[in-house]
Amino acid sequence: MDIMERIQKQVDSAAIVLYMKGTPQFPRCGFSSTAVKTLASTGVEFAYVNIFEDQEVMQNLPAFADWPTFPQIYMNGELVGGGDIIVEMAEMGTLKGEMENATEKFNNK
User: Whole-model pTM?
Assistant: First the structure.
């Protein structure tokens, strides 16, 4: 399996996947920390991938969905964007609903 197939498998493995620097318990950059706090504030479960644990993922993820920075958030296999996008969604009051919809859709596959 090549790296793009492996990333696709990760993205498809959960309703919501956060690619981040570090872990939710120990984020290793401010943007990843903000993304974790924002997602966690909804109470909806999400998966994560620590890009520091896999250099191939870290090097190839920006090309996967043509998004150059980390963190990256995927819902139901689709790139939502980076931390700034989910912060905006939270401020608009749409993040929790989108996450709940993604989880429901994923669970009903």
Answer: 0.96
Domain chopping of the chain, boundaries: 3-100
Whole-number pLDDT of residue 35: 98
Fold exhibited by the domain 3-100? Glutaredoxin (3.40.30)
Exposed, middle or buried: residue 27 (CB in 10 Å: 0-12, 13-18, 19+)?
buried
Question: DSSP H helical segments within 1-109, as ranges?
Answer: 3-12, 30-40, 55-64, 83-92, 95-107
What's phi and psi for 50, nearest 5 deg?
-85, 105
Strands 78-81 vs 72-75: parallel, antiparallel or unpaired: antiparallel
76 belongs to an annotated ligand binding site: no
Provide the terminal-to-terminal Cα distance of the chain, rounded to the nearest Å: 24
